[in-house]
Design goal:
disordered N terminus, 14 strands, alpha/beta, 4-stranded antiparallel beta sheet, about 40% helix
Length: about 375
């Protein structure tokens, strides 16, 4: 006799792992009573519906192999530079054989240690998903059952790829976050550098990670800032990408490059010019319209009526940077006047005190505001003198 073939009559109705464990206990007992059978090869046939799971016998000891898939995170962050985190995990779980490839971790060894490692690995994955980072002290805290240092701060929307917390940096930015939580549609209006777009995208990324939204849809009108670019080479994507680059920049700061590319290919994150929105119903999503001051009344009306079930919309704009022709009215100005008292719509006005860019930006905004007021007063005086 060359070996023993054991077919396990498992069904989907009963618990497969319980039956396997019971079966292996019987095999183990048999090998103990009859040592001469240990030389034989034992093959356990398990139905195909048990995935990411395998069991073997080594030196009369039951060993379990399981696969852990690292979903929604960058495996490089989890494994650490030069697989430093992975080496640390191997040292902390010496009874396990841990092998990683791409986003799949294979573990083989004692059932009890494997269960402990699987629980810790899931907590580490959740940590990376939330904070976009994983430090050695975090691994030790998680394995010991302690809270990590990053879990203490409150009011954080999400974390950048560098591990920096993204949160409100001013009173009006906090009003934007509160308005988003309390309303399904929010208008955020303010000068350049007040964090309107960046904070809005952070709220959308948080919703995606928390699974309160299934997709993010970002849009802006394709309007040049005071100059005609003429013909742009390439296909449609190449032509519209320059207008949408600020949205890409914000996303790349909050999501791993590989994961962002995957989400865009699967249309979980969609970036499109405003002209492509007509006829769509946007459901189960966070939808952001950036640079809304450059929409026409017809465009913004079309956009606002795309709203579907379980959807939140954020519309951002800067009234001082309207790039439409002089004779064309801004759709954002008109929308704010028409919708200001509608229930379920929040309006947040940010000002120069909320600017979070270089300190010179605040001075530049202040200087231009003074210039605009002086020019307006001068025009008013000239009009009175003519009359």
């Amino acid at each position: 006799m060359l070996g023993i073939l054991i077919c396990s009559p498992l069904t989907k109705i009963s618990s497969p792992l319980t039956k396997i464990s019971s079966l292996l206990t019987k095999i183990n007992s048999l090998l103990t009573k009859k040592p001469h059978l240990r030389k034989l090869k034992i093959l356990l046939v398990i139905p195909s519906f048990i995935r990411n799971f395998a069991i073997s016998l080594r030196n009369n000891v039951i060993l379990i192999e399981k696969h852990i898939v690292l979903e929604d995170i960058d495996p490089v962050v989890f494994y650490g530079t030069g697989n430093a985190h992975l080496q640390m995990m191997r040292a902390l779980y010496p009874k396990l054989r841990i092998v990683a490839r791409d986003n799949v971790i294979r573990i083989l060894g004692d059932e009890e240690q494997m269960a402990a490692f699987e629980e810790s690995a899931e907590k580490m994955r959740q940590h990376v998903l939330r904070f976009n980072s994983l430090k050695e002290e975090d691994i030790l805290d998680i394995i010991k059952g302690h809270r990590t240092k990053d879990e203490v701060p409150e009011g954080v929307v999400c974390y950048s790829m560098s591990g920096r917390s993204i949160k409100a940096r001013s009173e009006n930015q906090q009003k934007l976050i509160d308005a988003y939580e309390q309303n399904d549609m929010v208008f955020a209006v303010g000068p350049a550098g007040t964090g309107k777009t960046y904070l809005s995208i952070a709220l959308a990324v948080k919703a995606l990670k928390d699974k309160t939204a299934k997709k993010i849809i970002l849009s802006r009108p394709a309007v040049e800032a005071g100059e005609k670019l003429g013909f742009l080479p390439g296909d449609m994507k190449d032509k519209i990408d320059p207008y949408l680059q600020p949205l890409y920049d914000a996303l790349e700061d909050m999501l791993p490059q590989v994961k962002l590319q995957d989400m865009m290919e699967k249309h979980v994150i969609q970036i499109a010019p405003l002209a492509f929105m007509r006829g769509r119903t946007l459901s189960d999503a966070v939808v952001i319209l950036d640079e809304a001051q450059n929409t026409t009344p017809q465009q913004i009306r079309m956009f606002l009526t795309r709203m579907g079930w379980n959807t939140k919309m954020i519309i951002t704009g800067d009234m001082t940077q309207i790039d439409l022709p002089r004779e064309q009215k801004s759709g954002l100005v008109e929308a704010l006047r028409i919708l200001k008292d509608i229930e379920g719509i929040g309006v947040v006005e940010l000002d120069r005190k909320d600017i979070v860019r270089h300190k010179l930006v605040t001075r530049i905004v202040n200087a231009y505001e003074r210039f605009d007021k002086e020019k307006q007063n001068k025009d008013n005086n000239e009009s009175i003198n003519k009359d």
